[in-house]
Specification:
- This protein is α/β, with parallel strands linked by helices and 285 residues long.
- It has three domains: 87 residues, D-Maltodextrin-Binding Protein, domain 2, CATH 3.40.190; 76 residues, 3-Layer(aba) Sandwich (D-Maltodextrin-Binding Protein, domain 2); 94 residues, ACT domain (Alpha-Beta Plaits), CATH 3.30.70.
- Helices cover 31% and strands 33% of the residues.
- Strands 1, 2, 3, 4, 5 and 11 form a six-stranded mixed β-sheet that branches. The protein has a five-stranded mixed β-sheet with strand order 8-7-9-6-10. A four-stranded antiparallel β-sheet has the order 13-14-12-15, with helices on both faces.
- Strand 1, helix 1 and strand 2 form a beta-alpha-beta unit.
- The mean pLDDT is 91.
- It is an enzyme of class 4 (lyase).
- It comes from Paracoccus liaowanqingii.
- Pathway: Amino-acid biosynthesis; L-phenylalanine biosynthesis; phenylpyruvate from prephenate: step 1/1.
């Protein structure tokens, strides 16, 4: 055991924050790419991988669904992290001194209102924590970074403004992955994730999904994506509520098997408590 959890990005990135929140007892290992994160676990340099899969504002994280089934790793947990954005500057800087703010282009798009109201120009950086690191290195009070508060702590920057994101419910979902599956745990709300390809028969997807409806299994996600670089080869990624050992889930998966050419369960794991909180808030609206 290395007691390490690998993530993509610089120290202070939102993925690093997810590691500290979900596994505070583990050492966070920064990696350059998602592929490097997966390889760190496969090579026993880390025990777990923290991988972002979707954002409530911007949707699916590019390429991640291609990597999950090919990784050989298994999902053992999910973690929801609220994206709180701070304006970070070198110590002693006043807000009215800032003329430019640097960050990843996605984060810049989440703070348009604040930047417009304060007459601050957006500058595109490689990533959020990397932008904070560069602002600290330049030492120029006119240039600030948009990043997580954690990045300010790590790189010695002051927080001039907090929670400046346009959407206050912006959340990123992460999957925690391991070399070995863990299907032994039980909680009130379990999730099962899997990928499958349907057989080449008429209405195969419709028939495959029918088993979940007739057995009362709630499917929380279904996404398709091309494989092997051709339009005719489609793979589906799905999340359902329940455990494969639950009678209704077992029946639904068995029926799914009749209409698929391949089926691979990626993980069985407890739902993050924030998932239910957000669902209740949605129903309240």
């Amino acid at each position: 055991m290395t007691n390490r959890i690998a993530f993509q990005g610089e120290l202070g990135a939102y993925s690093h924050e997810a590691c500290r929140t979900a596994r505070p007892d583990m050492e966070a290992l920064p990696c350059r790419t998602f592929e490097d994160v997966i390889e760190a676990v496969r090579a026993n340099e880390a025990d777990l991988a923290m991988l972002p899969v979707e954002n409530s504002t911007y949707g699916r994280v590019a390429d991640i669904h291609h990597l999950l089934p090919e990784s050989g790793l298994r999902i053992i947990d999910e973690a929801f992290v609220r994206v709180h954005i701070s304006l970070l500057a070198v110590p002693g800087t006043r807000l009215d001194q800032v003329t430019d703010a640097m960050s990843h282009t996605v984060l810049l798009g989440q703070c348009r209102g604040f930047l417009r109201d304060h007459g601050i120009r957006a500058q595109t950086g490689a990533d959020t924590a990397g932008s904070a690191k560069e602002v600290a290195a330049r030492g120029n009070p006119s240039l600030a970074a948009l990043a997580a508060p954690l990045a300010g702590e790590i790189y010695g920057l002051e927080r001039l403004a907090d929670r400046i994101e346009d959407r206050q419910n912006n959340t990123t979902r992460f999957l925690i992955m391991s070399r070995r599956p863990d299907v032994s745990r039980r909680s009130e709300r379990m999730l099962t994730s899997f990928v499958f390809r349907v057989r080449n028969i008429p209405a195969a997807l419709y028939k495959a999904m029918g088993g979940f409806a007739t057995n009362g299994v709630n499917m929380t996600k279904l996404e398709s994506y091309m494989v092997d670089g051709v339009f005719t080869a489609t793979q589906f990624y799905a999340d359902i509520e329940g455990h494969p050992e639950d009678a209704n889930v077992a029946r639904a998966l068995e029926e799914l098997g009749y209409f698929t050419s391949s089926l691979d369960v990626l993980g069985v794991y407890p739902a993050d408590p924030l998932r239910e909180t957000q669902r209740q808030a949605a129903f309240a609206d």
